[in-house]
């Protein structure tokens, strides 16, 4: 986030004249709209906003946002974005990547941009498949995913993007999904966070991995399967209308969560855990929660800012330059020299 | 006239001062030979001699002590005449242990002087060096002069007052040896003493011990003069052009040139690098120049290093990255993006022996194909090569100029030899370089429309900084539409854009190619590029002195070639191209100029010897 003058814009101001080239029905459309809806709410300035992406379906994103955009090469967007932020820390940078781009070919760069804590929003569209290359399994594909490259089903274990981000040292980890009405709020929280803000956005690839997130993202029964986290609020889920409310309780002795029933709204009596987004251990537990026995944790899982990389680099540069002679002639003649008469 | 290698050792020319002397310091990689050589170089420069050096060290940081592969050497050639190379064969070999003697003895001129530390010629060290008997005692060194004495013991004696253990005391051995060398060539010790005091300012007892060792070595020379082959030699200074001088290595020069280039462009510089031999020294130098608007970024890998630099260029700084062969290979895809997005970028390649990991600390010129052709698609990049440590400074400025004046990545080729070697350098006046100040686009350039790919008369597109109001646009690696830069896969557009990118690079203005030594036409033209400049120049000069019709031209601009190149080469009956590869520039010349360029190649990890080149020239003229 930047402390710059807020600019008044509308959703329309963030649309480009380029024809959007995603498959009809792709979850990317919903994410694009959510971002275009969020940017005016942030008071973002199109001239000062920069979308940087790698390669893949998700990485076409910058072409459709009326701001500065750089569609780079496969997996390396974090490195370009780091250079951009070091050259101009005032730019508001959004990184767009996918599960293949960010966690396979670009896993190394994603790790380092997170550990360095370069101030930007990193949106990883996770559709658990390679879309643009026609449907191969990806590093987040579930075991036994049948794809052109794994006709008998994949045998390797998927990686968990949020666990990866936390492990790499991320100071902000959040989750949302393409058609969720809460996605703009998650994006706003990410933007408000100073530092590398990692957002995993589950995205439906309707061609190669259709409805793979339906078990928690489908509207029907969603309340039982989505745990929307809010800092300082109890971890509750379930049906408000029927009053069948459940919560997560910390089983401290065994260091794990358990699902408990909340009777008459008395979550304290049920021992439901209050979400503390600044608690790193809690975040680790939440991103590792097995879906099925537990709901899918969504929203801001972790948010505990630390000094950003670019501010540290700028400060060091200022300290090192203080009172130093900047005459090039003197620099060239530095060291032991001699004069020939 | 004989070639230089067969000359009498310089020190044997009784009664006359030699015009050049070659000294090689050799020892264990932990013996501080590079430091000794560096300081001896400084004293040589201060004495006003011309010089050239060749540091030759193993890839291992601390190879097992006493082993043959752990030998580190530093050779210096200095004289009262112009010096072009580090010398074919040493006149003096300082051998700090049996392994150093064994590895370096073959190079020593017959009749040359060996200075050896008997204290290290123990049974154990002789075994490690695979000597069956002690060469200092078995008469096998008879064709050389031998001066063997216990430098180890003499050093321990010299520093005994400083309360150091034997191990620490022996660390001063190199300074004792340097002291002796300073005496031999009648050099002032004070600059070295000042340097030791400054280097060890936080450990004055270490500084004092080293100074005591230095003085003791020097005193030993004075007292031993009466006996044996050791005598003092005067090498007269070379009258040089008046001005301020310093010694400079290629790595220092490229760093300074980049700083100067960025200033001439009026831009802050961003340097993205990743540790790799022999290129890391550039990152180290620039990391200390923050006050000159330099940001250095040690990236997570070679790819991130170049990508961050492209990101910085996109944001309006001068992006620079640097590496050696294997790292350059990793950067290839990103270079293509810089070509496609037409952003300025300087890529410095300090070449080393390849392929793969190859010979990390040895020199080679085998990345020329990679520089010129090594990317997917038609991705032309201008390539510049530096011929000496001092020349890199100007080449770096030239690379910056082309990068910003044509909005293109530029590859600057140096090599391990240039990076590490030192030479006296006349400090240039920064004001003598014409500035090439960058102007960013600040308003729409086609009425009320922005055309990010609208070209000027040089084929250059505008540079637009993100953050500029009203000029939002998108760029990327997908083929761009002429003018707008929007995605466009259409056949006619790809043809037009491929042509535009090629024409832009082909049209870069580079100075005409000149003959360096000799005539504008004749029987044989020796064509060089890069760090072979010194040996080719000397070999051609020597041959011309013997009446041979041979000339020398040395290319700085590899791609595009100077416009008159073909005409120049065709004025000679034969063209010989010596290269430290299997003939890469020869291929470019044949392809671009359709001339019958003949290769003369070497890939031993060592620079050309003058004698080798002279023989090749004689052969070509038969």
TrEMBL record, chain A:
InterPro entries: 2-oxoacid:Fd_oxidoreductase (IPR051457), THDP-binding (IPR029061), TPP_enzyme_TPP-bd (IPR011766). Residues 55-201 form the Thiamine pyrophosphate enzyme TPP-binding domain. Gene3D superfamilies: 3.40.50.970. One of its GO terms (biological process) is small molecule metabolic process. One of its GO terms (molecular function) is oxidoreductase activity, acting on the aldehyde or oxo group of donors, iron-sulfur protein as acceptor. Transmembrane segments: none annotated. Keywords: Oxidoreductase. This is 2-oxoacid:ferredoxin oxidoreductase subunit beta.
TrEMBL record, chain B:
It comes from the Bacteria. Residues 524-584 form the Pyruvate:ferredoxin oxidoreductase core domain. Residues 264-449 form the Pyruvate flavodoxin/ferredoxin oxidoreductase pyrimidine binding domain. Residues 30-218 form the Pyruvate/ketoisovalerate oxidoreductase catalytic domain. SUPFAM superfamilies: Pyruvate-ferredoxin oxidoreductase, PFOR, domain III, Thiamin diphosphate-binding fold (THDP-binding), TK C-terminal domain-like. The keyword ATP-binding does not apply. GO terms for biological process: response to oxidative stress. InterPro entries: 2-oxoacid/accept_OxRdtase_asu, PFOR_II, Pyruvate:ferred/Flavod_OxRd, Pyrv/ketoisovalerate_OxRed_cat, Pyrv_Fd/Flavodoxin_OxRdtase_N, Pyrv_flavodox_OxRed_cen, THDP-binding, Transketo_C/PFOR_II. It holds the Pfam family PFOR_II. GO terms for molecular function: oxidoreductase activity, acting on the aldehyde or oxo group of donors. Keywords: Oxidoreductase. This is 2-oxoacid:acceptor oxidoreductase subunit alpha. It comes from Alteraurantiacibacter aquimixticola. The lineage of its organism: Bacteria, Pseudomonadati, Pseudomonadota, Alphaproteobacteria, Sphingomonadales.
């Amino acid at each position: 986030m930047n402390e710059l003058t807020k600019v008044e814009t509308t959703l329309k101001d963030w649309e480009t004249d380029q024809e959007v080239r995603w498959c009809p029905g792709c979850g990317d459309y919903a994410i694009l709209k959510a971002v275009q809806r969020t940017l005016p709410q942030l008071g973002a300035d199109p001239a000062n906003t920069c979308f940087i992406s790698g390669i893949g379906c998700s990485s076409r994103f910058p072409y459709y946002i009326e701001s500065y955009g750089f569609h780079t090469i496969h997996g390396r967007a974090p490195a370009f974005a780091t250079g951009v932020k070091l050259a101009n820390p005032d730019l508001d940078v959004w990184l767009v990547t996918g599960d293949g781009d960010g966690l396979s070919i670009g896993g190394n760069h994603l790790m380092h941009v997170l550990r360095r804590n370069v101030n930007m929003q990193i949106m990883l569209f996770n559709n658990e498949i390679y879309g643009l290359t026609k449907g191969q399994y990806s590093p987040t594909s579930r075991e036994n995913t049948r794809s052109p490259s794994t006709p008998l089903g994949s045998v390797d274990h998927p990686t968990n993007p949020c666990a990866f981000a936390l492990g790499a040292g991320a100071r902000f980890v959040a989750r949302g999904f393409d058609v969720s009405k809460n996605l703009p709020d998650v994006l706003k929280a990410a933007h408000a966070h100073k530092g590398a803000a990692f957002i995993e956005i589950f995205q439906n690839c309707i061609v190669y991995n259709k409805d793979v997130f339906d078990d928690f993202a489908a509207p029907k029964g969603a309340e039982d399967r989505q745990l929307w986290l809010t800092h300082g609020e109890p971890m509750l889920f379930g049906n408000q209308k029927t009053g069948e409310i459940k919560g997560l309780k910390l089983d401290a002795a065994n260091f794990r969560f358990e699902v408990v029933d909340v009777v008459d709204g008395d979550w304290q009596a049920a021992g439901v855990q209050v979400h503390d987004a600044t608690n790193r251990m809690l975040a680790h537990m939440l991103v590792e929660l097995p879906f099925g026995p537990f709901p899918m944790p969504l929203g801001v899982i972790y948010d505990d800012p630390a000094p950003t990389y670019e501010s540290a680099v700028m400060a060091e540069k200022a300290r090192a330059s203080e009172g130093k002679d900047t005459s090039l002639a003197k620099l060239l003649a530095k060291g032991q020299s001699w004069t020939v008469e | 006239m004989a070639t230089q290698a067969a000359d009498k050792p310089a020190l044997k020319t009784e009664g006359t001062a030699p015009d050049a002397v070659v000294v090689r310091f050799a020892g264990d990689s932990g013996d501080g030979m590079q430091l000794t050589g560096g300081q001896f170089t400084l004293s040589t420069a201060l004495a006003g001699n011309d010089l050239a050096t060749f540091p030759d060290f193993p890839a291992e940081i601390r190879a097992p002590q006493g082993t043959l592969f752990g030998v580190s050497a530093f050779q210096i050639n200095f004289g009262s005449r112009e010096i072009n190379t580090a010398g074919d064969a040493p006149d003096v070999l300082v051998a700090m242990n049996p392994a150093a003697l064994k590895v370096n003895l073959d190079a020593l001129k017959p009749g040359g002087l060996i200075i050896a530390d008997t204290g290290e010629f123990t049974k154990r060290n002789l075994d490690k060096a695979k000597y069956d008997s002690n060469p200092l005692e078995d008469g096998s060194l008879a064709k050389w002069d031998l001066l063997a004495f216990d430098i180890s013991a003499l050093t321990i004696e010299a520093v005994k007052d400083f309360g150091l253990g034997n191990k620490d005391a022996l660390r001063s051995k190199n300074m004792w040896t340097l002291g002796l060398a300073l005496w031999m060539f009648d050099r002032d010790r004070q600059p070295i003493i000042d340097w030791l005091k400054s280097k060890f300012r936080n450990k004055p007892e270490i500084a004092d011990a080293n100074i005591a060792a230095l003085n003791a070595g020097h005193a030993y020379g004075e007292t031993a003069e009466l006996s044996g082959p050791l005598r003092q030699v005067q090498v007269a200074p070379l009258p040089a052009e008046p001005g301020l001088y310093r010694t400079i290595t290629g790595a220092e020069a490229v760093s300074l040139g980049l700083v100067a280039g960025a200033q001439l462009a009026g831009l802050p510089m961003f340097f993205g690098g990743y540790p790799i031999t022999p290129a890391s020294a550039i990152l180290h130098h620039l990391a200390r120049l923050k006050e000159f608007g330099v940001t250095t970024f040690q990236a997570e890998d070679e790819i991130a290093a170049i990508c961050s630099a492209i990101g910085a260029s996109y944001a309006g700084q001068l992006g620079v990255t640097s590496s050696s062969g294997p790292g350059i290979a990793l950067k290839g895809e990103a270079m293509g993006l810089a070509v496609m997005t037409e952003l300025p970028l300087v890529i410095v390649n300090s070449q080393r022996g390849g392929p793969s990991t190859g010979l990390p600390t040895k020199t080679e010129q085998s990345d020329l194909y990679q520089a010129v052709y090594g990317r997917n698609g038609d991705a032309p990049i201008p390539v510049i090569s530096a011929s000496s440590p001092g020349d890199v400074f100007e080449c770096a400025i030239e690379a910056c100029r082309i990068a910003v004046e044509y909005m293109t990545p530029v590859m600057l080729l140096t090599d391990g030899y240039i990076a590490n070697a030192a030479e006296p350098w006349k400090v240039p006046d920064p004001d003598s370089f014409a500035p090439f100040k960058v102007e960013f686009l600040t308003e729409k350039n086609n009425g009320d429309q922005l055309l990010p790919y609208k070209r000027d008369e040089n084929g250059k597109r505008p540079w637009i900084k993100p953050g500029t109001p009203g000029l939002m646009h998108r760029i990327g690696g997908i083929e761009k539409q002429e003018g707008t830069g929007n995605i466009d896969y259409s056949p006619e557009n790809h043809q037009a854009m491929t042509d535009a990118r090629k024409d832009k690079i082909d049209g870069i203005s580079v100075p005409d190619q000149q003959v360096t030594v000799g005539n504008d036409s004749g029987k044989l033209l020796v064509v060089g590029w890069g760090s072979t400049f010194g040996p080719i120049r000397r070999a051609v000069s020597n041959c011309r002195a013997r009446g041979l019709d041979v000339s020398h031209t040395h290319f700085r601009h590899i791609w595009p070639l100077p416009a008159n190149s073909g005409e120049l080469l065709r004025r000679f009956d034969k063209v010989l191209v010596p290269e430290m590869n299997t003939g890469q520039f020869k291929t470019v010349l044949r392809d671009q100029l359709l001339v019958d360029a003949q290769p003369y190649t070497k890939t031993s990890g060592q620079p050309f010897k003058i004698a080798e080149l002279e023989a090749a020239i004689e052969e070509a003229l038969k």
